[in-house]
Amino acid sequence: MKRVLVALPTLNENQKEKLRSACPGCEISFINEKEITPSNIDGVEIIIGSVPPAMLHSPESLEFLQVGSSGADAYVREGVLKPGTVLTTCTGAYSQTVAEQAITATMMMLKKMHLYRDAQNRHEWTDLGTVGSLDGAVVLVMGLGEIGKYYSRLAKALGAYVIGVKRRASDKPDCVDEMYLTDEFDEVCPRADVIVSFLPGSAATTHFYTAERFRAMKSSCVFVNYGRGVAVAADVLEEALRNGEIAAAAVDVFETEPLPADSPLWDLENLVITPHSSGFYHLPATLERVVDICAKNLSAYLNGGELMNVVDFKTGYKK
Amino acid sequence: MKRVLVALPTLNENQKEKLRSACPGCEISFINEKEITPSNIDGVEIIIGSVPPAMLHSPESLEFLQVGSSGADAYVREGVLKPGTVLTTCTGAYSQTVAEQAITATMMMLKKMHLYRDAQNRHEWTDLGTVGSLDGAVVLVMGLGEIGKYYSRLAKALGAYVIGVKRRASDKPDCVDEMYLTDEFDEVCPRADVIVSFLPGSAATTHFYTAERFRAMKSSCVFVNYGRGVAVAADVLEEALRNGEIAAAAVDVFETEPLPADSPLWDLENLVITPHSSGFYHLPATLERVVDICAKNLSAYLNGGELMNVVDFKTGYKK
Fold this sequence. Notes:
Two copies of one chain form a homodimer.
Chain A lengths: L2 E6 L4 H10 L4 E6 L5 H4 L4 E4 L14 E3 L19 E3 L6 H16 L2 H9 L16 E5 L3 H12 L3 E6 L11 E4 L3 H4 L5 E4 L13 H6 L5 E4 L8 H9 L5 E4 L19 E3 L10 H20 L16
Parallel strand pairs in A: 1-2, 1-3, 3-4, 4-5, 6-7, 6-9, 7-8, 9-10, 10-11, 11-12
Helix pairs in contact in A: 1-9, 3-5
């Protein structure tokens, strides 16, 4: 009889029942993810939820960790899980909430709504001139996982011409007009009116957006980072905005989170900062999808079925 | 030989040529709309552009006024034009720019991006909790002219269920899921997650959104006014927001414009104010469309062809 610990946000009875039905004969316990302590993990074979990585020191009994998040970069680091532990994510569950906030931020920048909000706070009735549009814009989407594809569909629905850039060769999905490999980024980068990054955190993506790459972008380009903060160093982004290498940016993720209160980024007029808020369970639909994925994978793991969203420890990406 | 005055923003040679070709044999002159003086109007038979209404006192010679704007309510008032003057608008040219800013504002409110911008300005990394989505939301679009239809298409592309409300019975256009007449507003109002108003200014639309109607809305409703300011009195909107009758509002138009610097509206956290900036020529595509409409109507007027966007002086609406 395996012991299963579910550490997600508070679930309703229907959601709990979905998980219970997925592991008949197991001993299952539920705890709010915010209340988890090291003793909860002790002797558990299966964890469903995003236990703080610092609480995990290669626990002996743990066989299978299904995290509640879409990324798992914090769990593939050495010493967090013992070799052989199966690690799966909830990739896909967060696509809607992240992509929707990212496209809202994109449109906000194009329409100067952040500057109009600032003007409102100064009681100023001031026309801020020319605005942009997604209609006809070339939008470069970095990372074509579930979130990148969701964003691409929204952008296309609003009239954008979407160029997808991804790590591995595959057939071009319908949601993009053109597709390139990450190695080809420098060739397509100067064409983009908007660059939206959903790159996950990994050695390969760390500081991907260098000062040189910002210089290669259109000076009218809007840069949006809703992937992971390591993809761009704070000082590089700051300089790109201060020097007018790009027109504006909207960023939800930072190398250091929370962003320190004395960071010079806060006061950049053309940078819209959100506190890594696009994910989580801010849309009610998200938790429902998380529970569905967890229940399916729990059942598959116990019955030797095929798991979804298995993480490759070498790359930190989905296998 | 008729005299034609073109008073639009500064046109390029290609745009001027389009208008010249539309009125061969006429004496045509161009002036930037901001530099027009009463002497420019004197003795002119045709004006293309939005001459300030205060400059018009039923000018004797004027036969045809093609305004550059989408609305013409300021020109149908008594004493502005002499009876019999033909009045046409550029309805349609502004649909994209207005609808795009309106949907950006809608999404911004649903995603709390205005509050995140305020938090940013305070250097605060604070999670603001649950957000909404257009996906699955019931969006009530008041006014199904070109702008209302454009907005409806965008909202549907983003997953909304769109209810259109219009003045006159007609076949339901594909861009809406249900359609009602203005008289039926009170029946559908409580169903709406978002109410977007594109009502023009007229006697019938003045103070349409009464305190009673705000009370009938969902307390979670987002109200967006991108039509004309007369549709809602400032104090009624203020009370609706302060009392929590609705969750938030985004307003581009006011009864008094510019909004006075001491208006209590400026400081309402859940109200996003823009300075009637959605229209004008802020999108480059708009001026191109305006010139096309003006050239077609100029040619039609001179050759007895069918005019587009003719204003009915009795209603202030398109005939």
